[in-house]
């Protein structure tokens, strides 16, 4: 398992560290190389989330602050639901 998590322009460094740790845990038992990118914007309450992985896996999602989707536990839950089931 290898996962690269990039989080940019999301504000609070502590929030970022917690988010990275939770995402690393989500991928801890997943085979293959994965990449998670979260791009925030100071001008918007929306963050762009992109996941890429083995076998051409690619998913995108918009995280909405008003829905609580900027919290690390919420982000980890959303990512976990987007992943393919384990074989």
Any descriptors?
87 residues, single chain, four-stranded mixed beta sheet, globular
Descriptive notes:
The chain is α+β, with helices and mostly antiparallel strands. The chain is built from 2 helices and 4 strands. The longest helix has 14 residues, at 13-26. The mean pLDDT is 93.
Which range does the strand content fall in?
25-35%
Query: How would the global form be characterised?
Result: globular
Count up the helices. 2
Q: Mean pLDDT across all residues, rounded? A: 93
- Separation, N- and C-terminal Cα atoms: 15 Å
Sheet with the most strands: spatial strand order: 1-2-3-4
Low-confidence stretches: none
Order of helices and strands: EHEEEH
Structural class comes to alpha+beta
Q: Percent of residues in helical segments?
A: 25-40%
Largest sheet: 4 strands, mixed
Q: Output the radius of gyration.
A: 12 Å
Beta-strand segment tally: 4
